[in-house]
Amino acid sequence: MIEFEKLNGYSRLADIMRNSLTIIGGLCLSAQKGRTPQEVALSNILHRCDEAEQALDKIMEARAARSGAGCVVRLPDPGTPWPRFSDSELICRCGCGLGARDMSRSFMCKLVSLRQDSGIPMPVTSAARCPDHNEAVSDSGRDGPHTPDAEGTCHAVDVNVWGRRAYHLMYLAPRYGFTGIGLRQHGPRNKRIVHLDDLEGDATTLRPWVWTY
């Protein structure tokens, strides 16, 4: 049996193949009205890619069902890199220097446990943000889930996940202690996100809560 992590890699490869072939197929179809043998071949390859992704999604669904039954947040050794998440993914995009060391340890433990148990690839598109950068890119202004709290740590990430995987992620996230889930599931796939945070509710922050962008 193929190891699950290898299947994750094959899934990403299938995504790349499908996106590339979709572009190529679109160019071919726009150039000619009839279907050439090459276009038929491209169509068949695209169909096979979709079948492969559906099979992988079924495996992830089974994995998610098993992990949701009894989730355990595990603490890695202090000072070690976060498994599955690189420092370059967690930095503030403005270049101010805010980054992995400024992420909440408890939040990252939940995130790593969710990632490892679910088997769902979770490329991070945004994590730590300084107040200036957050004000520039978010309606939450200078104070939001991505910005440092009173203790100086950040409690949120946006991950590039969509479709069935986003559905499974929404199902599992509350079981690992996430209280805020934001969704943007329209537009190009590389722009679709699931936001996760573990903020506590108060007079100004409604939690648990789900919203859309």
Protein topology:
Elements lengths: L3 H28 L5 H32 L18 H4 L14 H14 L5 E3 L4 H7 L18 E4 L3 H10 L7 E5 L8 E5 L11 E4 L1
Helix pairs in contact: 1-2, 2-6
Task: Give a description of the structure.
This protein has 213 residues and is an alpha+beta fold. It has two domains: 4-68; 87-212, Muramoyl-pentapeptide Carboxypeptidase, domain 2, CATH 3.30.1380.10. The chain is built from six helices and five strands. It has a five-stranded mixed beta sheet with strand order 1-2-4-3-5, with helices on one face. Strand 3 (180-184) and strand 4 form a beta hairpin. Helix 1 (4-31) packs antiparallel against helix 2 and helix 2 (37-68) runs parallel beside helix 6. The chain is elongated, with a radius of gyration of 19 Å. The relative contact order is 0.11. The model is unreliable at 1-8 (pLDDT under 50).
CATH topology of the largest domain: Muramoyl-pentapeptide Carboxypeptidase, domain 2
Distance, first to last CA: 40 Å
What is the CATH architecture annotation of the largest domain?
Answer: 2-Layer Sandwich
Radius of gyration: 19 Å
Uncertain residue segments: 1-8
Descriptive keywords:
single chain, 2 domains, 6 helices, 5 strands, disordered N terminus
Short description:
This protein is α+β, with helices and mostly antiparallel strands and 213 residues long. The chain has helices spanning 4-31, 37-68, 87-90, 105-118, 131-137, 163-172; strands at residues 124-126, 156-159, 180-184, 193-197, 209-212. Mean pLDDT is 80; it is low at 1-8.
